[in-house]
Each structure stands twice: as C-alpha cells, then as structure tokens.
Amino acid sequence: MIPWLLLYLFGAVHSDLHKLLSTLPQYSDSRIPPILRPLSYDLQLQLPLSEVSDPDIPLFTGRCVMQFEINQQIGPESAFISDSTSNRARIKFDIIMLDHFENVSLVYNGNELEIFNVQLTDDSMELSVDQPVLFPGRYTMTIHRYKGLIGSALYYRDAGEHAVFGSHLFPNRAPAVFPTYLGTTEKVTFSITMVHPIGTNALTSGASEAYPRKIDDNWQVRD
Ligand SMILES: *[C@@H]1O[C@H](CO)[C@@H](O)[C@H](O)[C@H]1NC(C)=O
C-alpha cells in the first residue's frame, strides 16, 4: 500500500519569508546600500517521486525566475579593458548547497546577455557576463533547473501513518532553496509552484490569516 504523504511546505515558506524580509541585512558596511535589489521570484519546486519509506533521497529540483534591479553600474573591474578575462562583470548570489545549474539566462531590456560563466561554491553562485559592465536597470535571471539538498532545505519526519516534508526555512536557510542577494529588506513578491507526487498533498498557509486546522492527534495545518 502506498503510504499517504503529506507535504507541508509553503505555509512555513510563507511565514518564514516574512521573517526573512523583515530581517536586517548583514552588510559589512551599513553605509553602502545594496546595488542589486530583488523584485520578484517565480519559483517552482519539485520534490522527488520517492517512496515515503525512503527519506534518504537527498535532492529536490528547482526552477527560479528572479527579477531584480541594479541601481548602480557594475564594472568594469579595472581600467585596462584590454585584459579581457578581468573585464567580465559579475554578480554574486548567496546559495546553500544548490547545484547542477542548467540553462541560466540573464535578460536586460529584452536582450539576452551572453553569460560567460556560472561559478558555484557551497555558498555562492557567481554569474559573469561576456561584457565589462552591467548597466543600471531591470534584469530577469532564469535558472531553468537546479538541485538542492532536501536535508539542507527541508526536513522529513515520520508522523505516524503520514510522512511529512516541511520547510526548514529559518531566514538564513532561504538560500538552501533559491538564490538570494544579501537578505534584502525590500518588498519582494513570490510566486511558488509545487510539483509533487500524485497521492500526496501540498498545503500552504498562503498569506491568509486562517486558523490552524487539526488533521490528526499529532499535526495541524494552516491554510
Ligand atoms: C537546456 O537547454 C538545452 C538546449 O537548448 C535543452 O535541450 C534542455 O532541455 C534545457 N534544459 C532545461 C532544464 O531547460
């Protein structure tokens, strides 16, 4: 018999995002305003089609469309444009163990920019473009596919007959789910789509202030 899987993800994502957005950014120098401001995220997250009895499947898949604004020209890094390697403008985002980035694109004013490289470390994603500057304005970055560690973003819990994946999104864990930029305090809109196995439920609290609903002796949900 296929066990019933309960996905309790977005309620917690939402409430934690509020926390995230109200958290003070940790700039090393508070006098410097961020040059990049996220405007919106369109996220699609897919949990693996794994058996509930196998919580060890470690990866989720994501797709991220992020709109942001650059309010100050980025680059050139040096006055010597002739040195082509050091004259690719870069932007660095925070991630936590996100990997396998596929088909990353950056669009500015309707034009797709040539991406030179996407360099990943455990905690950063650095995008460099094949041009020395990024001009102020609005950009759309799309990561068509990436993977993240369930264990770093979500938790799994056996709740009696049900299995539960919940968000693990304390504000500082958000980069384990999607790339962020300096934990900004600005208002960012989120649109989140969940892809999950048939026979499972995805629950969200949304923005509503609904009361929690009891689903069994051990669990309640908030719609
Ligand atoms: C990435 O781009 C290649 C080539 O255009 C395409 O075949 C592939 O499906 C794309 N992958 C994703 C995840 O969009």
Write up what this structure looks like.
The chain is built from two helices and 15 strands. The chain has 223 residues and is mainly beta. It has one domain (31-75, 84-222): Sandwich (Immunoglobulin-like). The strands form four sheets. The protein has a six-stranded mixed sheet. Strands 10-11-1-13 form a four-stranded mixed sheet. A three-stranded antiparallel sheet has the order 4-8-7, with no helix packed on it. The longest helix is centred in the N-terminal third of the chain and has 13 residues, at 10-22. The protein is elongated. 23% of the residues are buried. It binds 2-acetamido-2-deoxy-beta-D-glucopyranose. 2-acetamido-2-deoxy-beta-D-glucopyranose binds at residues 102-103, 144-145.
CATH superfamily: tricorn interacting facor f3 domain
| Silhouette | elongated
Largest sheet: 6 strands, mixed
Q: Element order, helices and strands?
A: EHEEEEEEEEHEEEEEE
Structural class: mainly beta
Number of helices: 2
Radius of gyration: 19 Å
The CATH architecture: Sandwich
Largest sheet strand order: 6-5-9-3-2-12
Number of domains: 1
- Regions with pLDDT < 50 over 5+ consecutive residues? 1-18, 20-29, 208-223
What is the highest CATH level, the class?
Mainly Beta
Question: Would you spell out the secondary-structure blueprint of this structure?
Answer:
Elements: E1 5-8, H1 10-22, E2 36-46, E3 59-70, E4 90-94, E5 99-108, E6 111-112, E7 115-120, E8 124-129, E9 137-149, H2 150-153, E10 154-159, E11 162-167, E12 189-195, E13 200-203, E14 213-214, E15 220-221
Parallel strand pairs: 1-11, 1-13, 2-12
Antiparallel strand pairs: 2-3, 3-9, 4-8, 5-6, 5-9, 7-8, 10-11, 14-15
The chain binds 2-acetamido-2-deoxy-beta-D-glucopyranose (NAG).
The site of 2-acetamido-2-deoxy-beta-D-glucopyranose has 4 residues, from strand 5 and strand 9.
